[in-house]
From TrEMBL:
Alphabetized CDD domains for the sequence: CBS_like
Superkingdom as given in the UniProt entry: Bacteria
Record's protein name: Cysteine synthase A
This protein's record includes keyword Membrane: no
Cofactor(s) listed: pyridoxal 5'-phosphate
Domain Tryptophan synthase beta chain-like PALP: 10-309
PROSITE patterns listed in its UniProt record: CYS_SYNTHASE
Keyword terms of this UniProt record: Pyridoxal phosphate
Keyword Zinc-finger among record annotations: no
Residues in coiled coil: none
Length: 336
């Protein structure tokens, strides 16, 4: 039996789950990395821990001494940062667009984060949550005062955390028998880090960026320019309409694709009712992309993706018939 030392010791070694229905439909092995089993409930725990470990190594934060972590986030990174900060005696100030799910906002309040809600603004607007959080960290005194601006989108510690843990775990868990990896991007840390880890061991592994509608990262991979696609998405924390985050720069990405919400939600609902696995919209999008890639590669291949977080964080949206109908999205029969 392995005993983990609190939050900081428990963020690792999530299982790979064989997705039976997707695997049978494609003749491939489609495996989902169960990141919702991290202590903070999402893949973002890894980025949060990596960023804070780096801050400790640089002397910005010291366990047991006063310190503050500031970040702008769609929610999950903020949850990971707040929990990890709690475990070391630091405060957390989390700036979130007010459009994010009620469940994530309530969770942040519950765990003691100083939650600052701001209107949802595009990245070019000074009121965008990323810019607000950066200014707030500066106003609080910056690193010289023991205030860390986590800067998850451009902080290389984010991608390194996934390169050293997530990617290595996938390689070890599959015994090196992996042909492709699919993943959506918010900060880009998961895709970039895992891609580097896998490509370093076998450069033939295909790395595929999965993008929601309304994001411009699919175009960026194909043309080098971020250009938002038509439509919009109900998924949270993934996609970028204005820029490619620093974490993605230089990442070894082979291809990309845009996945509509209807296709992503089909997988969210299928995983729940057919596999007994509750996930959020980004995980559904990832699985949909994995199925596309598996079909393109043909039977006999192994495709790995990420099950980013659990569905309970989206009850008021993805599992709310009124919300789904308002957006023109399918409602699963057991909720109708």
């Amino acid at each position: 039996m392995t005993i983990a030392e609190g939050f900081w010791g428990a963020v690792k070694d999530t299982p790979l789950i064989r997705l039976h229905r997707a695997s049978e439909a494609t003749g491939c092995e489609i495996l989902g990395k169960a990141e919702f089993m991290n202590p903070g409930g999402s893949v973002k725990d890894r980025a949060a821990l990596g960023i804070l470990q780096d801050a400790v190594e640089r002397g910005v934060l010291t366990p047991g001494k006063p310190g503050t972590v500031v970040e702008g986030t769609a929610g999950n990174t903020g949850i990971g940062l707040a929990l990890a900060a709690n475990a070391r005696g630091w405060k957390s100030v989390i700036v979130v667009p007010e459009t994010q799910s009620r469940e994530k906002l309530d969770f942040l309040r519950m765990i003691g984060a100083d939650l600052r809600l701001v209107p949802a603004k595009p990245y070019a607007d000074p009121g965008n949550y990323v810019h607000v959080s950066r200014r707030l960290a500066e106003e609080l005194g910056g690193e010289a005062a023991g205030v860390l601006y986590a800067n998850q989108f451009d902080n290389p510690a984010n991608g390194r955390a996934h390169e050293q843990t997530t990617g290595l775990e996938i390689w070890q868990q599959t015994g090196g028998r992996v042909d492709a990896f699919t993943c959506a991007c918010g900060t880009g840390g998961t895709l970039a880090g895992v891609a580097r880890a896998l490509k370093a061991r076998n450069d033939k592994i295909r790395i595929v960026l999965a993008d929601p509608e309304g994001s411009g990262l699919d175009a960026w991979v194909k043309t080098g320019t971020v250009k938002a696609s038509a439509g919009s998405s109900v998924t949270e924390g993934i996609g970028q309409a204005a820029r490619a985050p620093g974490n993605l720069q230089g990442a070894p990405i082979d291809e990309s694709m845009t996945i509509p919400d209807t296709e992503a939600l089909e997988q969210v609902f299928s995983l729940l009712i057919d596999e007994g696995i509750s996930v959020g919209g980004s995980a559904g999008l990832n699985v949909a992309a994995a199925i596309r890639v598996a079909r393109a590669m043909g039977p006999g291949h192994t495709v790995v993706t990420v099950l980013c977080d659990g569905g309970a964080r989206y009850q008021s949206k993805l599992f709310n018939p009124a919300f789904l109908r308002e957006k023109g999205l399918p409602t699963p029969p057991w909720l109708d």
